[in-house]
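Re-run with default settings, no changes from the original entry. Doing this only to confirm the output is reproducible before filing.
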Amino acid sequence: MEKQCDLVPSNEPAHLAGVRFDVEGLNCANCAMKIEAKLNLTPGIEEAVLNFTTKKIIVKSGLGRHELLVTIQDVVDGIEDGVTVSYPRTQDKKRVLSFRKNWNLAVGTPLYLAGLISHLEWLIICAYALIGFHVVRTAVKNIINRDFFEENFLMTVATLGAIAIGEYNEAVGVMLFYSVGELFQDYAIDRSRDSISKLMDLKSDQALVKKGNDYFVQDVETVPLGSILMIKVGQKIPLDGVVVSRSSAINAANLTGESVPVDIAPGDPVTSGTVNLTGVFEMETTRLYEDSTVAKIIELLEQSATKKAKIEHFVTRFSRKYTPFVLLMALLVAFGFPLFLPGGLATWGYRALVFLVVSCPCAIAVSVPLTLYAGIGKASKIGALVKGSNYLEQAAHINTIVFDKTGTITKGEFRVKKIHGDVLELAAYGESLSNHPVAMSIVKEYDQTLDQGRISNYQEFPGGGIKCEYSGQGLVLGNYKFLSENGIPLERIDTLDTVVYVALDGTYIGAVEIGDTVKDSTPEAITRFHRLGIETVMLTGDNQKAADRIAATLGIDKVYGDLMPADKVTHIERLINSKGAVAFVGDGINDGPVLMRSDIGIAMGTKGSDLAKQAADVVLIHDDLITITELIKVAKKTNRILKQNIYFSILVKVAIIALATMGIANMWFGVFGDVGVTLLAIFNSMRAMK
């Protein structure tokens, strides 16, 4: 039995570090850039990022939420009509192709046709007033705001100029073609946004929560920890948890791109965002929504707009300079060319008007954010969470990839394989306060109760070892280099496994060998990197001899062993200076500095430490190196599409301008160079998702 649970929304604090708002009705990329720029200059707002693709504004401000909403809406109203800002999830989707929104086109078009048939100029002028109403009104509004270099102003000047020289039919026809083109452009943008949203549709808004013998429908964001949920066949799993009754199979393609079903039974963990395939089961939640896998993914994707690619900054600069340049060129053509070339003022004035029609860089401004976000969406679909479009852009240029060994190339699942001397108890006590996988494997092997009171003055040195006092005696354990640096004479054990050497009161007394296994997918991943022309490098704290053997087995190009965390940073800096785009892949706490220093830091999402995931630019949902090769392919394809759109748009516009100067191209060509090219660029952008 299902019931609706009445919920009272929690009161959010008025002052937040980052507040999100939804934006509806914004399909002008140039306007989005202007709104973002003006918000960042508005008093009371520290930082604002407008994601044109997801229709969200993220604002850092000390203002209260309501005051902030009003402030943002005032800024938006001053730039673009018909755009509303609201709290998240309060706006219904508006239909682009609706009579109410486009009544002026619906009435003006037959009026224009009637004017063409009857040859009545006043009908054509009335049709222009109706069809161009929104464009002209917006242009006037922008003129008042001293914003001359935008498409509405240029289209208004061009069509009014055509009327002034007696080209009534063409002026109205071009305005009609432009308005209809804008309508279809809005429709294409909305469809593209929907496609991208569906690609990343991971969240379930509600869950069936068990209370007594009944199940209640409840918002996932309010489900308490430890709740029992019923998961139906075909339902997305709403929260992270563990199966408590019955079995099923799940599809994790939403998170990993891998559609092979995975069987689950009581005791098995399940991840939010995956889909239940075969049977109804119950699960117990182990994380609140804000800490769930899906919430973290959505947060990363929303924040990806805050890290903009170089090409986005290029578009902003290009838009600011391109339109004023074309306007000046149009003035030169209209009033300068008649002084030196055949043809009167009317002829060159008409050609100048074509300049104005074609000058708007909408195709570039719209397609660039759509393409980048589509690429980020596709990357998330294959299991790589990219924290910003700048990192996706950079991933296309990776030519060197550097790996940590433990937990990256290997599984990080350690077990004790050999003990040299009677040192297991000492090693277990020494490692008992560490959460490193090697330490936990030793404690697990000892498998006895530990008296923590026997350990004092504990110090852990990441990438090296541990110093402490055991029942008053000095205990040092760690790798060969760590003990040597602490003045303890010892002999190195020749093995492929990880060795923890143990010394008591300055005397070496034995060692523990811990084995790890290479991940099944690692050899194939190394092969794929080589096919992509990428050099592979391994950095590890293990001894050089053992590291060399692993590298030789896997075909890794270069390997450096016996490294401390600071040494890894040094090696990364050398590679960056000589190799260009360098990525580092790691999972441990000690990998944080290297992840931050590399061009692109990539962290393991399943077993990686929180510090590594925070420091990284890309997080792999599942710890598979093959995902990185797929990410690089997505990045390369995304960059190719971006360049195609930019080159195509600029070439078409330049060609039309050249033809207009020669008197070959008319205003219809100009409208195609603006609206038509924009539509083609939008459709091309969507290929990044395929």
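The domain at 415-515 is CATH 3.40.1110.10 (Calcium-transporting ATPase, cytoplasmic domain N). Residues 423 and 676 are 76 Å apart (CA to CA).
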